[in-house]
Design a protein that fits this description.
Elements: H1 10-32, E1 35-39, E2 45-48, E3 60-63, E4 69-73, H2 79-112, H3 116-157, H4 165-229, H5 238-245
Helix pairs in contact: 1-2, 3-4
C-alpha cells in the first residue's frame, strides 16, 4: 500500500461502488441523451441530466429519451446496512476458513488410513499404550501409598516423643508425590477417554467421506452414461454437402 492510501472495509467498498455506479451511470445517461430521476432531502422528485454532488449517494433512476427506466442505481448503504454487510462478510470468511480446515483434515484422514480396519488397529495401539501408562502409574501410587502408611505408623510410634525431622520431611515428600501421581493418573484417564472418542470420530468421518466419494462417482457415471446415449448433434452443412456430391 502506497503512503497516503487507506484500506477500505467491506462497507467502505460498498459505499464506494455505489457512488462509482452513479458516476458511471451519469456518463451513460448523458451519452444516450437521457436523464436522471432522483429525489432530494425534502422528498421532491427531480428529472435532470445531472445529479447534484450532495445527492449522488442517495440513488437514482436512469431514464432514456422516451422517459423509460433503463437502470436503477441503489443508494449508498446506511450505517446499519454497512454493519450488516461487514457482519455477513465476516461470517462468509469464517465459513470459508472452517470449510478449508475441514477439507485439510479430510485429506489427512484419507491419506493416513486406507480402510476402517487400519483405524481400528491404530485405535487399539493407542489405547494399549495409554493403558500401559495407567498401569505403571497405578503401581507407583500403590508403592507410595504403602510407604506413606509405613511412615505414618512410625510417626505414631513416637507418641508424645519428638518426631525426627527426617521422618517428617520424608512423609511430607511422599504425600506430595502421591498427590502429583493421583493428578497425573486422572489426566491420563481423561486422555484415554479422549483417544477413544477421537478414533471413533475419525472412523465415522472416514465412512462419511467414502460414502460421499461413492455418491459423487455414481453421479459422474450417470452423467457419462447419459452423455454417451444422447444422439450426436447434427453437423451443419453436411446434408447439403452430401446432396450436392451426388451425380
Amino acid at each position: 500500500m502506497k503512503p497516503g492510501e487507506s484500506k477500505l472495509s467491506a462497507s467502505g467498498w460498498a459505499s464506494a461502488i455505489a457512488v462509482l455506479g452513479l458516476v458511471c451511470a451519469a456518463g451513460t445517461a448523458a451519452a444516450a441523451g437521457g436523464m436522471y430521476k432522483w429525489t432530494d432531502d425534502q422528498g421532491v422528485v427531480h428529472y435532470t441530466d445531472r445529479i447534484p454532488p450532495e445527492s449522488v449517494s442517495k440513488g437514482a433512476t436512469v431514464l432514456d429519451k422516451q422517459g423509460r427506466s433503463v437502470k436503477t442505481i441503489d443508494p449508498a448503504p446506511t450505517a446499519e446496512q454497512r454493519k450488516a454487510i461487514e457482519a455477513e462478510a465476516e461470517r462468509q470468511r469464517d465459513v470459508a476458513k472452517a470449510n478449508a480446515e475441514q477439507a485439510r483434515r479430510d485429506r489427512a484422514l484419507t491419506q493416513s488410513f486406507s480402510s476402517e480396519a487400519e483405524i481400528d488397529v491404530a485405535r487399539a495401539r493407542a489405547v494399549s499404550t495409554m493403558e500401559a501408562q495407567l498401569t505403571t502409574i497405578g503401581a507407583y501410587i500403590a508403592d507410595m501409598t504403602r510407604r506413606k502408611q509405613e511412615l505414618e505408623k512410625r510417626k505414631a510410634g513416637y507418641g508424645a516423643k519428638p518426631v525426627p525431622a527426617s521422618l517428617d520431611t520424608e512423609l511430607s515428600s511422599v504425600t506430595e508425590e502421591l498427590a502429583r501421581q493421583n493428578a497425573l493418573l486422572a489426566q491420563k484417564k481423561e486422555a484415554l477417554a479422549a483417544v477413544g472418542k477421537k478414533y471413533d470420530a475419525d472412523k465415522k468421518r472416514w465412512q462419511e467421506i467414502k460414502i460421499e466419494q461413492e455418491e459423487a462417482a455414481e453421479r459422474q457415471r450417470a452423467a457419462d452414461a447419459q452423455k454417451a446415449s444422447a444422439p450426436p448433434a447434427p453437423v451443419r452443412g453436411r446434408s447439403a454437402a452430401a446432396s450436392t456430391s451426388k451425380p
